[in-house]
């Protein structure tokens, strides 16, 4: 019988491979009574049978069904699944977007007068939250070279409360020395958090490398089908109570319908990442050989300056990378991208369809030089055939170069 009034304990790690664990992650007899996928439990009010039952629930609101904002077995199954994928995790909270997960993780830790250090390669809305909102609350954000490593020690002051990493940076793809940064932070009593959207827990396990909070835009690879907005933050035991409380205080909630979609995405994540990784690497290696292309920014390429670091810490790659064109300006990239047959032009990434996006680092960066002189084009490789994608890009690069003929 379903006993969702009491939330079952997390199942122990059974030592199986991550692809195996993904298949049953988050499944609990108490959540679904034998139904393979947890049903979509929509709820605001939960009815209690008596005053005694109500009072028991008030004493332990996280132990079971309480009020819709604290979730139902549908959201709990997703939280448990994500927690179970990260060694060292004590719990996961869900958010209406990846940006909300990042903002809440920061708000859980910083107070007025504090200082946060953020990688210069961070996702732009992360910077905007820090620069426009945290600043108004009296919190200073400073940006550092993503390749700083252990030298971050020199930037830490008594006011420094948190360091936010993103590795690889999702436009420029620098890989960060996570263990070097987290060991300095630990010694100084500074919290570390990382935007792990590129890698997911299948390719990088940040808590095991010393981070306190691992954040993902579920919108990207876990959702995987371009029809879902969601974020997740997974914390170690030290940070979990603060993250959980900040999430409640700010009133974050995701619908059971969306949690169910995200769980469905999670079941095929290993398969989709393997395919995107392999196709992206094939396309990236081909692009590296093209005369119109100056550089390909993909950490799994031996030509990438951080390739060694990536190999040390990551168990694989995913399907997102950038290329730098040799000549031209942003306006010229229309010739390349407007008539691509298999790449959509749009934001987000990690879905089953390939996407292309010209990106402007010089508008975003403040601490480090831009790693390119020509236009930068970001590609999210989906599940299409590699040969078709290459043929499409070959035609696009021919159109691109044709603009400069005779110059
Ligand atoms: C998309 C993205 C986010 C934000 O996710 P949303 O769900 O769109 O708010 C955060 N970090 C990275 C690296 C992203 O690509």
Q: Structural class, please?
A: alpha/beta
Number of strands: 12
What small molecules does the structure contain?
pyridoxal-5'-phosphate
Shape: globular
CATH architecture of the largest domain: 3-Layer(aba) Sandwich
Radius of gyration: 22 Å
Give the % helix.
25-40%
Determine the number of helices (DSSP H or I, runs of at least 4 residues). 15
CATH topology of the largest domain: Aspartate Aminotransferase, domain 2
User: Poorly predicted ranges (pLDDT <50, ≥5 residues)?
Assistant: none
CATH class of the largest domain: Alpha Beta
Q: From N to C, what is the helix and strand string?
A: HHHHEHEHEEHEHEEHHHEHEHEEHEH
How would you write the strand order of the largest sheet? 1-7-6-5-4-2-3
- Estimate the mean pLDDT confidence: 95
- How many domains? The number is 2
Q: Main β-sheet: number of strands, strand sense, barrel status?
A: 7 strands, mixed
CATH superfamily of the largest domain: Type I PLP-dependent aspartate aminotransferase-like (Major domain)
Strand content: 15-25%
Question: Would you kindly provide a written description of the structure presented here, covering whatever features stand out?
Answer:
By secondary structure, the chain is an alpha/beta fold. It folds into two domains: 18-267, Type I PLP-dependent aspartate aminotransferase-like (Major domain) (Aspartate Aminotransferase, domain 2, 3-Layer(aba) Sandwich), CATH 3.40.640.10; 270-402, Aspartate Aminotransferase, domain 1 (Alpha-Beta Complex). Helix content is 36%, strand content 15%. The chain contains 15 helices and twelve strands. It has helices at residues 18-24, 29-32, 51-59, 73-84, 98-109, 124-134, 178-188, 200-203, 240-249, 256-267, 269-288, 307-313, 333-337, 361-364, 386-402; strands spanning 91-95, 115-119, 140-144, 160-166, 191-195, 213-217, 231-235, 293-297, 320-325, 343-345, 354-359, 376-380. A seven-stranded mixed sheet has the order 1-7-6-5-4-2-3, sandwiched between helices. It has a five-stranded mixed sheet with strand order 8-9-12-11-10, covered by helices on one side. α5 crosses α6 (124-134) and α5 (98-109) crosses α9. It is globular, with a radius of gyration of 22 Å. The mean pLDDT is 95. Bound molecules: pyridoxal-5'-phosphate. The site of pyridoxal-5'-phosphate has 14 residues, from α5.
